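pasting for ref
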Amino acid sequence: MFTTIIVQPIFNLLVLIAALVPGHNFGLSIIIFTILIRLLLWPLVKKQLHHAKAMRTLQPELKKIKQAAAGDRQKESRMVMELYKEREINPFSSIGILIVQLPILIGLYIGLKKVITDPHTIVNFSYPVLHHLGWIQSLSQNIHQFDNTLFGVIDLTRKATGHSGFYVPALLLAIGSAVGQYLVSKQLLPKEENSRSLKKILSEAGGGKAADQQEVSAAVGRATLFVIPIFVFLASLNFAAALPLYWLTSSVVAYIQQARILNEDVEEAEELADKPAKRAAPKPALPAAGQLKSSSGGLKVTRTTLRDQKSKSASRKRKRRK
C-alpha cells in the first residue's frame, strides 16, 4: 500500500519532470522536483515558522508561570495550556511538516534506489499514461540513453565512499548537504545572551542547584544543532549521490523560505513599533475656553490674530517669488 500511495506517485512525478526538462538530465530533474515539493509545502512551512516564532515570544510568559507555580507541576501545566489556548497556539502543530516530509523522503529514496539498481524501472514502474512521451519510448528501446548525471559532471548513482576509495564529487554533495542543514537549523535558533551550555547546567544541577527546564530545553536545542547535520553527512556517505543532491537543494530552498518569513516578521514588528509614535503625535492646540465665549472682544482678538498670520504668510510667499 505504501508503494502504491507514496512511492509510485513520487516516482512518476520525478519521471514526468525528467521527460519534460531539456536534455532529460536526471540531476536537473531532482533539483526541479525538490523545488516543486518545497513550494507545495509552502503553506505548511509558513505556518510552522510563524508557530515557532510565536512559541519563542512566549518564553517570558512561561518563565512567569513557572515562578507562579512554585514547583506545582499540575498547576504549571494547567496555566501553560491556558496560555496556549488564550494565544491560539497548538504546541504540537510544528511536527506537521516533519510528518509530511518523512514519507516523501522515504518514497524518493525507494524510487531513486529502483532507478539506480535497474534503469528499466523508469519504463516498467511508470504510469501507462506516461508511456506515450517520447523520452519514455526512447528509453524503452535503448535504456543507455538515460542520463544519470548532474549536468554530465557528477554520476548520481555512485556513493561518496566505495571499494575504489572516495568519489570526490559525491563527497562534496554530502558535505554541502550537511552544511546546508546546519545553516537551516541555525537560522531558526533564537539568539540568547548569556546562554549556558547543557554540560554546565547539568553540572550545577548535580551540585544541588535546581535546573530551569526552559534553559535546559534551549541548551538541548543548541546541542542538537550539530546532531542532524552530522547524521545527514554520515547518511549521505552511504547513499548514492542523488539523495544528497535532494538534501542540498531542499536546504537551499528552505533557507530562502525561512529568510522570507523572518524578514516579514521583522517588518511587522517595525510597523507595530511605528504605530504608537503615530498615535502620540501632538495634536493642534485648541482655543482656550475664554476665546470660545460669545464676547465680541475676545472674538475680535482671535480674528485679528488670524488675519495678521495670513498676511505675514502671503508676504513671505511674494518675496520668494521675486
